[in-house]
Specification:
Radius of gyration of chain A: 18 Å
Number of helices of chain B: 10
Largest sheet of chain B: none
Helix content of chain B: over 70%
Structural class of chain A: mainly alpha
Strand content of chain B: under 5%
Number of helices of chain A: 8
Number of strands of chain A: 0
Radius of gyration of chain B: 20 Å
Order of helices and strands of chain B: HHHHHHHHHH
Oligomer: heterodimer
Largest sheet of chain A: none
Distance between the termini of chain A: 52 Å
C-alpha cells in the first residue's frame, strides 16, 4: 500500500519536473491526474455540492498553473498540491460565507431551491468567467457577482483600484465578444 | 468551460520563467538599497561611527543582523511554498538571537546593576528604533511584491516572516550608523525595531498576501 502511494508520488513528481522543463504532454497528464485527485478531495469536503466541486477543481488547477514556479523537487508533490487545494477550499468557503450572509439580508432570493434558473444562470456565468484571464475573472466575480466594492475587491485581489476597474471593463468586453462570436 | 478543456488550455501555454527565490533575494536587496539611501539622506554618510566603535562591534552588529535577515527570508520563502514546513526554519531564526542573548547576559552579569540601562539602551535607543522601523517600510513593500510569485497558504505567518525579514534587513542598514558597542544594546534596542514590522506583517498578511 505505502509502496504504491510512493510510486504515485514519484510519478507525479517526475511529471511535474518534466512539465516545468517545458514538456507540455507531461504537464497535461499531470493536470489530469491532479484533477482526479482534487475532485475526490473536494467531494469529501463539499458533499452534495457537485457544481462547487467542479468550480473549485478548475480554480485549483488554475492556481497550480499560476504558482507552479513555487514547486521545488525537494518537496513531495502531493504535499504541495494538498497545500494549494486546502488554501483554495478555505478561500471558497470564506467567500461563500460572506455571500450567504449578504443573501440572508436580501431575503433568500438565490438560496431558494426552487429558483433553478438563477442557479443555472450563475453556473453559466462561472463557466464564462473561467475563460477569462484570472485577474479579469476575479475582478468581475468580486465586484459584479459577490457584491464587493471596487475598493474591497482591490484589497482582496491585491490589484490596485484602477486595475480592478480596468479588469472588469476589459473582462466584460471580452465576454460580450465571446458571446457574440458564439451565436 | 469543461475541466478537460481548461487543462488542455493550460498545458498549451508556455511555462512562466518565474524564479521565486531569486525574486525574493532581489527584492530584499533592492529594498535594502532604498532603506540605506533613506538613511544616507537623513543620517549622512554611513560607517562614520566605525572608527569610534572599532571594527569588532561593527562586525558583530553586521554579522548578527545579516544572519537574522537571511534566516528570516529563508523561512519566509518556505512560508511561500505550499506543503513546505516552516517550523524548523522558524527555529533557526532564533539561533542568532540566542547567541547574542547569551553574550548580553554575560555582559550584564559582569557589570554593576547601575550601568545596565546604559548597556542596554545606550544613548541612541530612540534613533535606533525609529531608523530600523522606517527602513523596514520599503523593504516590506519589496518583499510583499516578491510574494506575488509565491503562494503563501498561511498568509498571517507569511506576513509575519516577511515583516521580520524587512525589520532585520533594515537593521543591517542601521548597523552602518549605530555608534553603540555592546551586545546588550544589540539585543535590547535592535529587537523592537525588528519585531514591530513582524507584528505589522502578521496583521497585514491576510490582506496583502492573498492570491
Amino acid at each position: 500500500m505505502t509502496k504504491s502511494v510512493d510510486l504515485f508520488e514519484a510519478k507525479l513528481q517526475a511529471l511535474m519536473v518534466a512539465g516545468m522543463g517545458g514538456n507540455a504532454r507531461a504537464y497535461e497528464t499531470l493536470l489530469l491526474l491532479c484533477a482526479d485527485r482534487l475532485r475526490s478531495y473536494f467531494r469529501r469536503r463539499l458533499a452534495g455540492r457537485e457544481a462547487d466541486v467542479e468550480d473549485l477543481v478548475q480554480e485549483t488547477l488554475i492556481a497550480i498553473d499560476r504558482k507552479r514556479a513555487t514547486y521545488i523537487p525537494a518537496l513531495p508533490f502531493t504535499a504541495w498540491l494538498h497545500g494549494i487545494a486546502r488554501y483554495r477550499l478555505i478561500d471558497m468557503l470564506r467567500r461563500d460565507g460572506r455571500r450567504a450572509v449578504s443573501l440572508d439580508e436580501g431575503g433568500h432570493e438565490l438560496s431558494d431551491a426552487g429558483n433553478a434558473d438563477a442557479l443555472l444562470a450563475e453556473l453559466d456565468v462561472m463557466a464564462l468567467l473561467s475563460s477569462l484571464p484570472p485577474k479579469q475573472a476575479a475582478a468581475i466575480r468580486l465586484t459584479r457577482i459577490d457584491g464587493y466594492s471596487v475598493r474591497e475587491a482591490a484589497a482582496l485581489t491585491g490589484q490596485s483600484e484602477p486595475s480592478v476597474k480596468i479588469n472588469v471593463h476589459r473582462g466584460l468586453g471580452r465576454l460580450v465578444a465571446a458571446i457574440k462570436g458564439e451565436s | 468551460m469543461r475541466t478537460d478543456d481548461l487543462i488542455a488550455n493550460l498545458a498549451g501555454r508556455p511555462s512562466p520563467a518565474a524564479r521565486p527565490a531569486a525574486r525574493l533575494a532581489a527584492a530584499v536587496f533592492c529594498g535594502w538599497l532604498l532603506a540605506l539611501a533613506g538613511m544616507v539622506a537623513v543620517l549622512g554618510p554611513p560607517l562614520a561611527a566605525v572608527p569610534d566603535t572599532g571594527a569588532t562591534p561593527f562586525a558583530l552588529k553586521v554579522g548578527y543582523t545579516v544572519a537574522l535577515a537571511a534566516l528570516a527570508a529563508f523561512a519566509a520563502l518556505a512560508a511561500g511554498r505550499p506543503g513546505q514546513r516552516v517550523a524548523p526554519r522558524l527555529l533557526m531564526v532564533g539561533l542568532p538571537v540566542l547567541l547574542i542573548g547569551a553574550a548580553a547576559v554575560l555582559e550584564l552579569a559582569s557589570a554593576p546593576r547601575a550601568s545596565w540601562d546604559g548597556l542596554m539602551f545606550g544613548s541612541t535607543f530612540e534613533t535606533c528604533f525609529l531608523a530600523i522601523s522606517l527602513a523596514s517600510i520599503p523593504l516590506f513593500a519589496a518583499i510583499a511584491w516578491a510574494f506575488r510569485s509565491l503562494a503563501p497558504t498561511q498568509p498571517a505567518l507569511a506576513g509575519m516572516l516577511a515583516g521580520l525579514s524587512a525589520g532585520a534587513a533594515g537593521a543591517v542598514a542601521y548597523a552602518a550608523y549605530c555608534p553603540e558597542t555592546t551586545a546588550s544594546f544589540l539585543l535590547v534596542s535592535y529587537t523592537p525595531g525588528i519585531i514591530g514590522p513582524a507584528i505589522a506583517g502578521a496583521l497585514l498578511g491576510p490582506r496583502l498576501l492573498r492570491w
